[in-house]
Specification:
homodimer, 341 residues, alpha/beta, Rossmann fold, 14 strands
C-alpha cells in the first residue's frame, strides 16, 4: 500500500501523516510507503526519519514522475494555494489549484490506463465552493444538494476540480472522493494567507500572549471544525467503501465536513472564559472589507446528514475546540493561564 | 462593433450569422465586422462574400491572435466537440471544450487588461450539465437553482467552463453570459455525432424520404427548442443589460433556454400527422444503450421562469416546430407530402 500526501508538510498534511504513521495501516492493509510531497520541506521533521516515509520535494507539477514512479494506491491531494492568495493572484490560483490537480489526475489516469490500480484520490475541497451575494442568496441551511455559487477564485477552482474528479471517477480513471473542509480552527503555528486565517489567529495569538486583529464584525457566524475532527473526516472519507448502504458515497462525491456553527463573538467569549480577560483583551476588532467579503460569503449553517451517515460528528462546542488546542499545543500557550471558568 | 462567432459555420453559427447580417446592428450599434472563426469553412457560403464578414479558418486555439487582432466587443463561443464525441474521446473533449475555452477567456482577459473593452462573452452551454442517475435523481422540474450533476464528460466540460466564465465575469475580465441550450430540433443538414442527433434525424430524414433509426424507447421525454427559438434566445441573452430589474442577469449567469417537453412517441405522432404514414413508417425503433444512457440522463421538464423574465418563450408545440422546419428548408423535404392533417 503506497500512499501519497500532497502538501504533506502543510498543517493538515502533518496531522494526517501523524495519524497514518501511528496506525501504519490503511483499511486494514499495512502501509509500505508514505510519500510526502511538498514545495517546502522543513529542515527537521520527525516523520522524515520514519522508514516508511519518502519525501518528494519541489513543485508538484514538476515531480509527478517521482510521485508515480511506483503505483499509487491512495492519493490525498491537500496541496493548494489558499483563498486570499488566489484572490490576489489569479494566475497563481489557476496554476496551483487547477492545472496541478489536472496534471495529478492525468498521471493517475495514466497509471490505471497502463494496467495499474485506479488510485483512490481524496481531494480536499472547501466550504468556499459556496458563496452568497445579494442577487443570489444561499438557503438558510446548506447541504450537498445546494447549488454551489462560489464568490472567490479559490472557490471556483475547488469546484472545477470537484467536477473533473467526478468525471474521472465516473469513467473509472480514479476512485475519487471529495471532502469539503470547513474552516479549520484552531490551527497551530504561524498565520497563513487564507482569508479565514484570523479564525485561528484570534484564539492562537492571544493564548501565546500576542495581540490579534479580528477583521470582521463579531456578529458574523462561521462554520468551523477542529484539526482533529477534520483529519478524522478526511481519513474516514478515504477509507469508506463506495456504495455500501448507509455509509455509501454513491450519491455524488462531495461530503461537507461536519460544521460547528459559532459567531465570532461567541468565539471571543469562549476565549475570555477559558483564558481570562487579560488574554481576551489582546484581540482588537478592525473590520477589513476584503476579508469580510470572502468569509462573509460562506455559509455558516449546514445540514450534515451525509457526514453523519459516515459516522462523522461536528465538534460539540467551541470550548471543546479551544481545550483540544490547549492540550495538543502546550508549547504555544502562555504558562500562566488562569484556571478555566 | 466587432463581433466574433466561434463555430461560425456550424449550424447555429450560420443561423446567428444570418440574423446579424440581416439586422447589421447589435444593441442598436452598427456592426463593423463579423468574424466567423471555424475549423471547417465550406467552399461556398453566402455570408463569406458580405463585406462585414472576416473569416478565421483553423483550430481556434491556434488562431486567437487573429481573432483578437482588433478589439473584440462581443464573442459568441459556439464551437465545441459534441456529447457523443466527448464520451468516445475524453482527450478530444477536454482539449476542444475546456482548453480552448480557457484560452479564449485568457485572450479576452488580455484584451481588457491591456485597456481594451472587457468583451461580452456569450457561451453556449447545454442541458447536458444536468444528469440523473439512480443514486442522485434530479427533481421532477429543473431550474437554474437545481444542482447540476453531469453524467457525461461533455456536460462536465460545459459546467466547468460555466464556472470559469462566472469567475472571469466576477473579476471584470469579461462580461460573461451563459445560455444553456436545450436539444435543438429540427436541425437541418447531415447527422452529427451528438448523442441527441436522432432527435432531429427521426424527423429530418423521413421528411427527405430517407429511413431513420430511433435509438431510444419512444416513451422517453425530452426538452427541445427549435433553431429559431434557440438563436433568438442566444441573441437576447447577449443583448440584455446586466442588472436591470426584470430582465436582469445578475442572479447567476446561466439561463436555461425555454424548453418544449415532448416524448419521442409524440414527436413521431406529429410526424405522422404532418407528413403521412408513408413518411412516418420510415422510422424504425432500435434502442442503443449508449445513446439512451446519455440522453435519458438529461431532464425533460424545466421551470423556465428565468428565461420568461427575459421575454423568451418555448415553442408552442412540436407541430409548430415541424412546420417551421418545412417552411425554412423546402429543399430538404419530399415534394409530395400529403396535406397536413
Amino acid at each position: 500500500m503506497r500512499i501519497v500526501i500532497t502538501g504533506g508538510f502543510g498543517f493538515l498534511g502533518r496531522q494526517l501523516t501523524g495519524t497514518l504513521l501511528t496506525t501504519r495501516t490503511f483499511r486494514g492493509a499495512p502501509i509500505d510507503r508514505l510519500v510526502l510531497a511538498d514545495r517546502i520541506v522543513p529542515p527537521e521533521s520527525p516523520s522524515a526519519s520514519d522508514p516508511l516515509v519518502q519525501i518528494v520535494h519541489g513543485d508538484l507539477i514538476d515531480r509527478l514522475d517521482e510521485v508515480f514512479a511506483e503505483p499509487v494506491d491512495v492519493l490525498f491531494h491537500l496541496a493548494a494555494a489558499v483563498s486570499a492568495e488566489c484572490e490576489a493572484d489569479f494566475d497563481l490560483g489557476m496554476s496551483t489549484n487547477l492545472d496541478t490537480t489536472r496534471a495529478l489526475l492525468e498521471a493517475a489516469r495514466g497509471q490505471s490506463a497502463a494496467g495499474g490500480p485506479a488510485p483512490r484520490v481524496v481531494f480536499s475541497s472547501s466550504v468556499a465552493v459556496y458563496g452568497s451575494d445579494p442577487a443570489l442568496p444561499l438557503p438558510p441551511v446548506v447541504g450537498e444538494s445546494t447549488l454551489p455559487t462560489p464568490r472567490s477564485s479559490y472557490g471556483i477552482q475547488k469546484l472545477v476540480c470537484e467536477q473533473l474528479i467526478a468525471d474521472y471517477t465516473r469513467r473509472g480513471f480514479v476512485d475519487g472522493r471529495v471532502a469539503r473542509l470547513m474552516t479549520v480552527s484552531v490551527r497551530p503555528g504561524k498565520p497563513n494567507a487564507a482569508a479565514s486565517g484570523f479564525l485561528s489567529g484570534i484564539i492562537r495569538e492571544p493564548l501565546a500572549g500576542l495581540p490579534a486583529i479580528c477583521p470582521v464584525r463579531p456578529a458574523l457566524r462561521v462554520a468551523l471544525a477542529s484539526p482533529r475532527r477534520t483529519v478524522e473526516a478526511i481519513l474516514r472519507i478515504a477509507e469508506v467503501e463506495r456504495s455500501t448502504g448507509r455509509g455509501r458515497l454513491d450519491g455524488g462525491l462531495p461530503v461537507n465536513l461536519p460544521a460547528l456553527t459559532v459567531s465570532v463573538a461567541e468565539m471571543l467569549t469562549t476565549l475570555r472564559q477559558v483564558a481570562g480577560d487579560a488574554v481576551a483583551d489582546l484581540v482588537s476588532i478592525a473590520p477589513d472589507p476584503a476579508i469580510e467579503t470572502i468569509v462573509g460569503s460562506w455559509p455558516s449553517v449546514f445540514d450534515n446528514t451525509r457526514a453523519a451517515a459516515l459516522g462523522l460528528q461536528p465538534d460539540p462546542s467551541f470550548a471543546s475546540v479551544v481545550r483540544e488546542y490547549l492540550a495538543d499545543h502546550p508549547e504555544a500557550v502562555l504558562a500562566d493561564l488562569p484556571p478555566a471558568r
